Amino acid sequence: MRIVLDANVLVSGVFWAGPPYRVLSLWAHERVQVLASEPILQEYAEVLRDLGLARGEMRLAESRITFIFQHAALIDVRTRIVACRDPDDSISLS
Description:
Blueprint: E1 2-3, H1 7-15, H2 19-28, E2 33-36, H3 38-55, H4 58-71, E3 73-74
Parallel strand pairs: 1-2, 2-3
Helix pairs in contact: 1-2, 1-3, 3-4
């Protein structure tokens, strides 16, 4: 199964237990494939660094960023589709 993770789900899975953690575990065990564009990867890194710094867990944040960049399937998005109720979740391609 191929999925795109919301940054909030990713962060929750990295720093706390629960369903988001289980999703990341499925990814780590190659049960799901995470798709991401370059802007999404940058958003993941930014939010993980911000929270890692705030929680004093930069080593954890950086190790997860490395994993993400090595294991996410990079997709090239050429068409912008506005399908999110939250405008912050619509990644601009410009």
